[in-house]
Records
---
Amino acid sequence: MGRYIVRRMLQAIPLLFIVSLIVFVLIMNMGDPLIAFAGRNGQVKGADRERLIRKLGLDQPIYVQYVVWLVGNDWMKLDLDGDGVPETNGTRRGVLRGDLGTSVVTREPVIKMVRDRLPNTLLLMVTAEIVIISFALILGIATAVFKYSIFDNVFTGLSFVGFSMPVPLLALGLIYIFGVYFKRAGLPYFPTVGMFEPAAGKTPEQLVWHLVLPVATLSIISIAAYSRFIRSNMLEVLGHDYIRTATSKGLSSRVVLFKHALKNAALPIVTLIGLDLGFLLAGALVTETIFSWPGMGRLFYDHALKSDMPVLMGVLMLISISVIFFQLLTDITYTFVDPRIRYQ
Amino acid sequence: MAVATETLSKGEERVMFSPSTKPTLSLWGLAFRRFLRHRAAVGGIIGLALIFAFVIVGSFAYTEAYANKPDVVNRLQAPSWLQDPPTWEHPMGTDSVGRDVLARIIYGGQISLIIGFLSVLIAVTLGAIIGAVSGYYGGSVDSILMRFTEAMIAIPSLFFLIIISKMLIGSIPNINLLGRSLSGSVPIVIFVIGIFGWMVEARIVRSQFLSLKQQDFVLAARALGVKDHSIMWKHILPNSIAPIIVFASLGLAVAILTEAYVGFLGLGVQEPTASWGNILNQALSYLNRAFAPQDFIHRGVWWLWLFPSLMIIFTVLCVNFIGDGLRDALDPRGLTK
Amino acid sequence: MKRIFAPSSILAILIVTAAWLAAACAPVAAPGPAAQATQPAVAQPTSAPAATAAPSTGGNKVITISYTQEANNLNPLYTNQWFTQNLFDLFLDNALITFNDKNEPLPWIAKEIPSIENGGISADGKVITFNLRDDVKWSDGTPLTADDYVFTYEMILSDKNTVTSRDPFESEVASVVTKDPHTLVVTFNEPYAPWMTSIFSRANSSVAIPKHILQPVFEKDGTLDNAEWNRAPTVGVGPFLFKEWETGSHLTFQANPDFWMGAPKADQIFFRIVPDDASQLAAIKAGDTDIGVFISPSDVPDLEKLGTVDIPKVQSGYKESWYFNMSTDPATMGNPALQDANVRRALVMAVDRNKITQELLYGLTKPALTFWDGMAQANTDIEPIPYDPEGAKKLLDDAGWKVGSDGIREKDGVKLKLRYVTTTREVRKNTQAIVQQEWKDIGIDSELINHPSDVFFASFGDKGPIATGQYDIAEWSNSPQFPDPNAVDWLCSEIPSDANPPGGNWEFICDKDLDALFQEQARTVDAKKRIELFKQIQKIIADQVYWVSIWDDPDLWTVSKKVTGVKFSGATPFWNAYEWDKME
């Protein structure tokens, strides 16, 4: 087992390398890298453009830029005044030496930007994930046990309405109903946007309060997918002989359900959850945007609009590492959940 | 106790006993019979057939040119049967430049369904092949395929979608097909949704294969000299059909929804080509009115989001019920009992 | 088989967690449709946050402004972003000249506006002398002097700093020196007419940075790129001072009691980043924001009905415009029909632009006549191009573009099929759809193409679709150097090509007469003469149909009726923030 883990970790290195290469090439081709310097009319022109391209190293071939991103440029001389003679020492240390670079938009170290956003995103996403999984487990098991009952059919219908609901429509609908019209009608209401009221400050109470609508949005759209998946796995397991055996030997339905059935249905469920955990720190792009929640999804999207390579690379690599870590964790968990699987 | 007996007594009891009386039926014939007994699934088939009929027959009632013809003076009109005097000119109202919403839902439905089915087809095929090969052969094949899958998984597909859409949107010219002019964004959306949708399924199929390939019936088949591909596709894959179908049915829904979702970010199917997603997205600009209590009927633009939403929800529901029915019907273990 | 039934820790954890969470979380987070029904009851104790429930009277007047984009860098050298530049009115309010709500120049740190009459401008127009106020101090007590401006100039030109723009200091200015601590002398290479909006002016946000703070940083780091002050400008000058910036969330500014014009009336300005327009609107309606920015015209009727906000319409020089691809270079050329001024005129005559503004923009604006509408330089004698589809057909027939068998006009085997390219903004897509139909009615085929705005605005070097001529008609919003009329995008020398990849003349117009007039106006310091030159420029543009406005594009704001004293200027929106007040 220990050797298996070590091997998987070693395999992660070329994996991350491939991911970074694919993503880098895509990002370098997605738009004007100097859009961040543009004023309101959207253009950067003339001498300023040439100077900035040189200064940011964008005049170099793409593979040189990749190498610089990877290992930095403090070992080479750069030509910053455009006379063709390299004269200035580079200052970047490269990702391999812990320097994720500096955002083209904000001139801030990427690592700091990510550190600012990560707690917000985790607060939102972990809360939502907990709510989603607990509801999905309860509903998935219940609908499997009472399959084809009125409860099952009604819930299936409702969960698909939630699942099919376009996120922006749902989010804005919740804001208008619980934020705007409840307030206008004199009812207790929820805040519309942001993480806290400026006058009240960033207190835990404010945070919880501002979390309600975004978490509700994320939950309503996600519960269906999870609970349907759990239901279908439970149904499959419930059809097996050993369940009938267990039932016929007189075990209580509770024991059969939770001890025998759920345990065997857990493998695909664990897979699904394990895969999703890694993405939690990617945040929820549309939900974060609509609720003005300063998370990672928005960081990515705002900077994708500006083709801000260092930030996009930083965010994507961080997510990749997290996903790979949770994949490994999932695979290891398999062996506990299903002893039939063994890794050499 | 009650739980288990109830599950057994409901749908499957009859199935369990009927094969013995009709032993001549093939596996698929049996599955078909069982599928027909699944009422929700049959309802789903009928529903989906109705949707197809609607978008196909509808295109004889309205021309595509009509669906794309703006009439700005009559923009954002509520359904005409609510007007005074009531007419059937625009049964679902008009959109933000005065195009007929019903006609756009018909033509948009064709596009959304095409996007859904084609992208799911790409995703399911890729996922099943990669998952099966990887799980069955194991070793270095598994290693390579799984590293590739992991690399694809490790990047959130929505982010990929944004980057690739930004690169490609506007780069493919309009496509003239069967006398119709489609926005070049349609194949881009299909391609992008399809090639980023297979990874989870591949992992699930692989984990099924990992667990099933050590079971007795596989070992027995191998001992009897059955060929690998035959074992994979005939013996193991049918055992994985349940999760594949669940994923395909959810995947179809996700594909249709994703199209609407990237539209919110300004990257979906480009107008004038209609899709359910881009009709819906128009509504978002006027949502403040949609939730306005005063004169909701005529000014609420509810017709812009309600009708495409209903179509999307109805399609997703039907597809899922069909998926449910297929799963119950195709479960090979039901036969061996 | 037994092993399958062996207890597993994971399973136990799952069930226990699920049970615990179901019990613990449901009432707190209140998710899901079922739980929402109970929300009002749950909401009672903690609802109505302090600001609304308990009016705070103890000098805590917070004015909340929603910002749909976040500031990028608070150092004026490192930003060109409109959202950030507005903030300088609060914490870095040291422009020599600013502009009021009528877009009239006001002497700000300069005691008076230099002119030839008062001796501030030399007779040859090349030297401008500014006399600075001597009563202005940075928030740490250090006096603001001419040295700060010279330092700013040096930092802009230093190769070690990745500043956003050197324009026009690099191209036009020969030197910036101090005569004494409160006299600044700027010398130009040639007389430079637009100096008032570009040399230490609030109009282009060339404000000064504190030398006493940043010079030591520059000497230590060798660059200002990473200075802490760029993101936390704790030392400032102006009615408000930087307090806090949490990225993605908010920016706050605290009143400066020592402001040289007296303490401001409000206590705090709170900028909340609200990236989605629709959620900004919800926040405005809920009263969660006092000032809203870039309001969509389609929302105005409802906001007016709401009655809790004013909706000022502020002219900032922007005009939603059509540009025709005039390139003659095969690599960047559009449909050859566009070379003919009569075809261009016919394209415009076929479209009812007034109907577009009336319906899509709710009559809040109308087509602008010239690129300089709303400014002293506008030529009001120009005849607007009428809506006349029949006339358009005749013009096209006369120009040789006859209707072919498929209903599309053609000439010499070339179809009149046009690529109509713009960004993905909703109102632009709607405009495209309407125009496509109107062109179709007179036999012009068009293909609608939309790019995300950063792709759309990418330069020739980055293969931007407009800059490389991949269009026939392009639509975007543009402005002169507002409130100065200067514009360089029309010069032949600005045409982008392999030799000049950053060029900004994306309409590829090269008209010798126009070129000469544009060059001349930039050197004409005499305002009256300059106006005459601009009138000639506009005549040529109108006669040749080089440019057409679809609509005038003013900025729409919302201001809560609780907030008083707000007077936006198109060039410098927050110039009088010290007068803003909020009633409880």
---
Amino acid sequence: MASLSSSEWRSICEKFRRAQNLSEIESRKDPENDPFRSKYNARELLKEIYSDLKNFDAGENDNDDNDQPQEEQCSDPVEPEGEGSGTGHAGDSPAGLRAARLGVIEYYLGVNHVETEELSAGEEHLMNCIKLLDKCTVSQENVSVFIQARNQLGILWAGRDEIDKAQGFLETAESMYVRYMKEVGQPPMDLTDFFMVEEEALSPQERTKQFEMAYTHTLYYLAQVYKNLEQYERAGRYCHSTLQRQLQFNQFVPLEWAINAATLSQYYITKSCYMEGRHCLAAASVIAGLAGEVPSEAAAQENEAESEKREQLGQKRAEISRCWIKYCLNLLQDAKKLLEDNIGELDTDRQAELKRSRQQEEDEKERGRKSAVLFSSSDTFDSICSLEEKVSCAFPLDFDEARAVFLTGQAHVNQSKEYFQMDGHVTDHIEILQDHSALFKALSFFEEDLERRCKMHKRRVDMLEPLCRDLNAQYYLLICRQLQFELAETYYEMMDLKLAIADKQDELDAHSIKKFNHLCAASMKYYQMFLDSIRSPEGKFPEKLEDEVLRPALVAKFRIARLHSRLISASPTVQLENLSNSLSCYDFLVQYCQEHPEARQAVETELELSEEMVSLLPLKINRLKAKLVSAN
Amino acid sequence: MSKNKNCETVKVVVRCRPLSRKEEATGYESIVNMDVKLGQVTLRNPKTPHGELLKTFTFDSVYDAGSKQSDLYDETVRPLIDSVLLGFNGTIFAYGQTGTGKTYTMQGQWMDPEKRGVIPNSFEHIFTHISRSQNQQYLVRASYLEIYQEEIRDLLCKDHARKLELKENPDSGVYIKDLSSFVTKNVKEIEHVMNVGNQTRSVGFTNMNEHSSRSHAIFVITVECSEMGPDRQNHIRVGKLNLVDLAGSERQSKTGVRGERLKEAAKINLSLSALGNVISALVDGKSTHVPYRDSKLTRLLQDSLGGNAKTVMVATLGPSSCSYEETLTTLRYANRAKNIRNKPRVNEDPKDALLREFQEEIARLRAQLDKRGMLTRKRRSGRRARKGAGEEEGLIEGEGEEEEEEDEGEEDEEDSVEKDVEDYVKEQQEKLELEKAAIRDDRSLVAEDKQRMLEEKERMMMDLRKEQEATDMLTAKFKVRVTALLIYYTHQ
């Protein structure tokens, strides 16, 4: 800087300021037919600055040589990565500063070319920037440029579908940040700092913010790189870090952040990482709370902004609730999978074993995991923790534990239904009710009392049946089918339970029989409704079932067959009728699989049983017929 | 082609415009080659030598630079419009980079019959069909909306800055709350509706091109048809036609036509605000909730993309070597669209059919009016129209006489029934005035008679005024409805 007169320097700073202004602000107003006008103007200014700097450098060359020996004595705090020379100027020496200054201009020129769709030229400038800096050690002066130039090159190569190259640049930027923070840690100079007159210099806080933001972007870009490389676990980790850093440096929009965190929880859920999932959800709920109170209906009616806010807040909070529901549901279902025996009942040995092992492992293991994933923002930390304590993240192993999870889920069902009402949000509303039903179903597994278990299924029927009735299948065919099938299955389960209860009582009274037959009939009705939904508009059942309904349709036929044969009747004539109905359904399945062999694998077990029934049932029917004849 | 009769794939056709003069002058060459017979498009990468790295795509049809508007319409669009008239839902998308002829394909040049696009041709088609039909009642409604930056606006509403909400109803599926729709009785009227919308779309934006290339416009025509079934019951079929002018495909990656977005293999999103996209891409949706809403366009057209509809997609291309990348993207997208399978069904007796509502209302009004003795006049004029229709071959003209009376009343404010009444009364008054004048001028009548007739006319005018007070809104509603029904009587 020695040979730069202050007026010359001021003029450079002024040019830089203008270039920034053109590039960032003016460019937004450029007309469609000349979209890069301001960017091009900015480019010219940058070029001028570049040659100005070069000229001064030429005059300073002598000094440069003098600098050299001093620098080499400097132990370099951070080794530049492989692609550079490794040794060179100290970043904070005059030569290092000169290089950084030129590097900054090369950086801006590079970005300018990239933004004006001249990728090769942009790449060249960015590489020039890196070459200049590689001659220097990493320092407070140049670390920002180092990282940002690599961010840009990462984006550039990703845009060219060369993910490996992008990954290289971004990972270098990442490791550079880590080392710098470990070994230096002072707020580094920002890129704009180089061309600011002293009185406008950024505060250390502002510098830190800019620097950390650049690194947050590095992580965010890496998340995308890993996603594109299908390294989903890594991508998830980097998304998580990005969220953490947004919170830490207070660079986030509450609702947006909360939705992202809630979505990330869903990723953890699919990986069965319930502790991480819960942490994300608790953080999402707390941060969403920062977005303010939901305006009252009255306020919303008076003012459009308030009305929009009400809508936004209501919707986003309901969305977060829905993520909580899935958390509870998956936790219950996963626990069920762990605990069930081969016929789907609670395996008590397994339960005892899991209870024993749980205490030992848990404590140490999870503490270690936990510190790695915390969202640490001092003012929200406590509220996040207290929210977490409200629901367990360990698999529930008995009814009481399961019930606690269920109740949390149910509370969120009620909360999300407030926004996602049937009127206006049909699909969402029904999805929530389906989840509610699934929560009951999962809970019923833990319930030992069969009567009470039956009541839980009754609750499911009560919430689903009206939907099935009111929904227009023309627009909601898929949902209607789901509901029909679930209702049929639920009645089937209730029928099974009633039978089990009756078995315990030894004797079937008339009331129980009536009840039992009613459940059978209801189940058949819904299976039949499902099958009818497959018919063509003319009412014809398709000769060939489509892939997505193949298994459900054949299973429905199979179930109907079974239900027919289970109906209880004292009259042999009715019995006969039921059996032949049953036979014809089994027969349908067997016939269908003969005509369409590709269907066999979809219903292997059902087909095997059906084939057996088709050979056995006629015997039974004949015997019954014989009995009828002889009775007459 | 499809495995199942109820299933059919989206019909995808590709159209390529000629090399523009500017492109020719700049020395760009054509890199698109089309085989109309095989329905194939071959794209050459201009960066590689000839004959190398050709990319070939096959579609349902391809239309080269020499193709006429009528080729595309007759082959590809006509069958779809016929289906709509039978009660199917139909959608036509135009998709492509800005400047590849989307608007030319959809709109064309209205004044030149040769160069008319899909939209004017389908208007003509619909109303010609209706005029030739027998024993059917039709009701045609039109709506026009725009989606810009995920906000829906009504292009036919005065307050078009108002954002509309996308809602769902258990009975009628996805709908736009408060979207206006206008009953149109002929080509002229539906064109008028479209023009009004187009004007709304273009005003208020300093940069029209920018705006329209970034917004999706959807013109919706609902055709309801009522016909006596073999069961002696009236059955209503409702076909809905969506004419969709998508935003330029260069913006498509941002707006996303489907849930299955244009997956630009490895592009990095720069803005942190897109973090959600990354995260949601990691989540397997089966047992989880992903709280990002589908785009409005996707939700609105979900039936057209894998649902109850027949869909045609017209992908438009530019042939120039300078747009190789975009052209390839368009072709890839179009290629993917071929795999979308729809399950179209005739929409029979839907609960929300406006036609039914009209019919019921008319029956109710008729009953009320009968009591007031209003209908004698009404019936008389109805008979007159019918008779006229019988005499002239063109049935639409036969009705036209009566319709035109109402046109003025409806033109600017179709829904304003009150105004319609006023207009009607005014018209009747004018008519009577004219008749009065004619009587006065008729020298063949004796003065006495003249006086008597004039008095009678005067009395009729008084009656008319009273009539209005007495029947109030009822009449007006009735009139609007009846003419809107587009009833075409066959020869008796």
